[in-house]
Each structure stands twice: as C-alpha cells, then as structure tokens.
Design brief:
This protein is α+β, with helices and mostly antiparallel strands. It has two domains: about 5-220 and about 340-420, Zn peptidases (Aminopeptidase), CATH 3.40.630.10; about 220-335, Alpha-Beta Plaits, CATH 3.30.70. Helix content is about 35%, strand content about 20%. The protein has 14 helices and 16 strands. It has helices at about 5-10, 15-25, 45-60, 105-120, 150-155, 160-165, 175-180, 205-210, 250-265, 305-325, 345-355, 370-375, 390, 405-420; strands spanning about 30, 35-40, 65-70, 75-80, 90, 130-135, 195-200, 215-220, 220-230, 275, 280, 290-300, 330-335, 340, 360-365, 380-385. The strands form three sheets. Strands 3, 4, 5, 6, 7, 8, 14, 15 and 16 form a nine-stranded mixed β-sheet that branches. Helix 2 runs antiparallel to helix 4 (about 105-120) and helix 11 crosses helix 14. The longest helix has 22 residues, at about 305-325. The radius of gyration is 23 Å and the shape is elongated. The structure holds glyoxylic acid and manganese (II) ion (2 copies). One manganese (II) ion binds near residues 97, 139 and 395.
C-alpha cells in the first residue's frame, strides 16, 4: 500500500462501538441515582476476569500473539516487516471504578484493537512490530495503588510488593491473579517499546466546552494517596458530654475541611485538587459516636514542589487534630507518582495526525492518572484525549462519548501508530 493510501485509512467505527458496547455489558449495573447503566469491573474481580477474557479472545481472533505477564498485563504482538526493531505499543486498562462508565480505559484498549483490525482488513504490515495491551488495576480502587500493572512492568513497583497488596477482605493481588487465571508466565520488565501512545477519554470538561475535537496530552499531574485510620472511642451519642468525646468522625471531617481550604488558599498553586473519597465510620450508627474512621486522601498537583509542601502541611495538620481531639491517626501512603512530562516529538506526531484528519486540537494536561505515565519512564510517550458528553464526566455511569468522538480519537491513533512505526532507530 502506498504512503498516500495508508494516510487515507479509516477505522470501522461501527465495529469499534459494537466492541465498546459488548465490553460495556460485562459488569454492567443499573445506577438508580442517575438512572443510567454503568460499569463495575473492579480489578481482578470475576467481572474484570470476564472482560479480560473477552478482549484476550478478540486479540487472538485478530491473529495476534498473546502473552500474559506475572502481574496479569496482557500483551498482543503483531509482527512487523523488521522484527528486530522495538515495537510501537498502545493500550490502556479494562478494569473500572465500582461506579464507572463504558469508555474509561476501554476506549484505549479497544481502540488499539480497532487499529489492528483495520490494518488486517487492508493487509497492511507496519515496519516496526506493534503491541497492543491492557494493564492490571489501573484504577487502584480495590488494592489501593493505581497504575499497578504498568508500574510493575516498568520497574517502579517491585513485583513482590504488588503481589502482597490486599483488598478490604484480605485477598492479595497474587491470590486473585491466580484465581482469575491471569498470573501469567512472562517475566515483568521484558518490554521496552520504541514508543507508547494511549487514547483515553479526557474525563473533564475542557475539550467539550471549548468545542475542540482532540486533546494532545502534555503530561500528567502528580498523585499522592494516603489511607487514614483514625481511632477514637465509640460511646453513647446522647449520654456522653461533648467534652468527654474522642470522635473519630469529627477528626475526619476536620481533615476534609482542611483539604478544601488548602486548595482554595492558592498556596499550593491554582491546580491543586484534594478529595476524601472514602469515609467509613465505625460502628456507623446514628446514636453512637464513631470510634474509628477509615478515610482516604487523594491529592493532585502538577507542581512536584507544591505537592511536597501540601503533604508536609497535611502531616502536621493530622498531628494537630490528633492532639486536639484525643484520637490517634495512622497515615499510610498507598500511591505516589510525580508529575510526568510527555515526549514533545510524540505530541507533534499526534498533532500532525490530527491535522491530517482535519480535526481541531489543543494541548492539555491530564488530570487523571494513566498507564501511559508509567511507560513514559522507559520510552517516548504521549496520549490522545477525546471529549465526552455531560461535561466530560467520568468515574460515573453518565460518562458518554459519541461514535464520532471515539472515531476521531482512534483514527488519529491509527495515523500516529503508522507514523511511529515507520521511524528509524
Ligand atoms: C485513575 O483513574 C485516577 O486518576 O485515579
Ligand atoms: Mn483510565
Ligand atoms: Mn479511571
């Protein structure tokens, strides 16, 4: 096929959307609150396993050579004209948050698959080999650490440490990988691609509000997660005078308010974000003072220095609150990634591809964590963002992308993969 003909290649949008629908039906649940169907495929759960098996089967049907590594990352290789060259890799994740939508992660995996299916349809063999993949537990909701599989693959998190992580029921990553049949034989750390590109929904409002077709992702902000165990004393809500209390619920509430003050104050930059997403009081009764609260803190900041200052300030505030309220606070860091800057040349390749498709684009920093940020440690990397409806909402069943939005992203991915696969050295 001539270079010109390759430039005209287009994915099959109906097929892509049909695959997104089919994967979206795995772990689908009806969310009463918003009256839409969402997705629940917690990492290494039976639903995740079904999703994985479905996609792995599609990889095999596309004629790819599939291997699973020791942390359950699943790679599908397509031969190139020059087999000794490092491959171009693309992929994302099939796990979801417990109240997720159909596109977060799935678009990147099934989009990469659609690229391969399109190349197969047209009998195109790329110069470099291609690898498409899905990575284990990107979300981090079950075992507490996000981007787990890709972080292990690139050597940031040791395999044994990842294996020993447990969920709330005490089940370990290693045990669950084994039980769903995804504890693979390939050693981790074996893959160094030529380049990595991931397409993902933006998960925010910028592109849709600015009516821009695509985001060219410049990097990812830093993430700091901690899990707090606040221990006070449970006692009768009516009979215990206020001055006698050691109220773990009050401590959690005060820390949560502090987080919001820290963001509003501007001391840590205008982009600082903070969330207490888990607040579990025990025993959790209307008339019992909470004796214990399990809470989580999620901090995001594109400025590493500001992030460190925010963490130090929060440590000091936790100590202060413990003393003032007579509680103890155990604080465990469960995830920590620095801000990541993506490769300029891959960003330019994405821009050129978007221009070739006649699509408008802008550069944008990722608010969420992504597998691509881990791969950027070992090869040149960037991401394509697609806009979403409903203000780009994500981690919510109302997450929604149109066929055109998905196709724009994946046609651009196809074009970028073709250009990267032609590169020398
Ligand atoms: C992953 O989706 C994260 O940013 O938490
Ligand atoms: Mn994601
Ligand atoms: Mn997500």
């Amino acid at each position: 096929m001539t270079t010109d003909a390759r430039a005209q290649l287009k994915i099959n949008t109906d097929r892509l959307m049909a695959s997104l629908d089919e994967l979206g039906a795995v772990g689908a649940y009806h969310d009463e609150e918003v009256s839409v169907t969402g997705v629940r495929r917690l990492a290494l759960s039976p639903e995740d396993a079904r999703g994985r098996r479905l996609v792995k089967g599609w990889f095999e049907e596309a004629g790819l050579t599939v291997s699973v590594d020791a942390i359950g990352n699943t790679y599908a290789d397509r031969a190139g004209l020059e087999p000794a060259q490092a491959p171009v890799m693309s992929g994302s994740h099939v796990d979801s948050v417990p109240t997720g939508g159909r596109f977060d992660g799935a678009l990147g995996v099934l989009g990469a698959l659609e690229v391969v299916r399109t190349l197969n349809d047209h009998g195109v063999t790329t110069r470099r080999p291609l690898t498409i993949a899905f990575f284990t537990d990107e979300e981090g909701c079950r075992f507490g650490t996000d981007m787990l599989g890709s972080a292990v693959a690139v050597g940031r998190i040791p395999l044994e440490q990842a294996y020993s992580l447990t969920d709330d029921d005490g089940k370990s990553v290693q045990q669950e990988l084994k039980s769903i049949g995804f504890l693979g034989a390939e050693a981790v750390g074996m893959r160094t691609p030529h380049a990595f590109v991931e397409c993902h929904v933006e998960q925010g409002p910028t592109l849709i509000h600015e009516e821009i077709d695509l985001g060219v992702v410049t990097g990812v902000q830093g993430i700091s997660w901690r899990r707090l165990t606040i221990t006070g004393a449970s006692a009768h809500a009516g009979a215990t005078p206020m001055s006698f209390r050691k109220d773990a619920g009050l401590a959690a509430a005060r820390i949560n308010c502090r987080l919001h003050e820290m963001c509003a104050g501007g001391e840590y930059g205008a982009e600082m974000r903070a969330t207490m997403g888990v607040i579990h009081p025990e025993p959790g009764m209307i008339n019992v003072i909470p004796g214990r609260v399990i809470a989580t803190v999620d901090l995001r900041n594109p400025d590493d220095d500001a992030m460190r200052r925010a963490e130090t300030n929060l440590d000091a505030y936790q100590q202060h609150i413990a003393q003032e309220l007579g509680v103890t606070i155990e604080s465990v860091q469960t995830a920590r990634t620095p801000a990541v800057v993506f490769d300029e040349s891959v960003q330019r390749a994405i821009e050129a591809a978007a221009d070739g498709q006649g699509l408008s684009h802008r550069r944008i920093l990722a608010g969420a964590g992504h597998d691509a940020q881990e791969w950027s440690a070992v090869c040149k990397t960037a991401m394509i963002f697609t806009p979403g409806l409903n203000d780009g909402i994500s981690h919510n069943p109302r997450e929604l992308s149109t066929p055109k939005q998905c196709a724009d992203g994946i046609n651009t991915l196809l074009s970028v993969i073709l250009s990267l696969s032609d590169e020398d050295g």
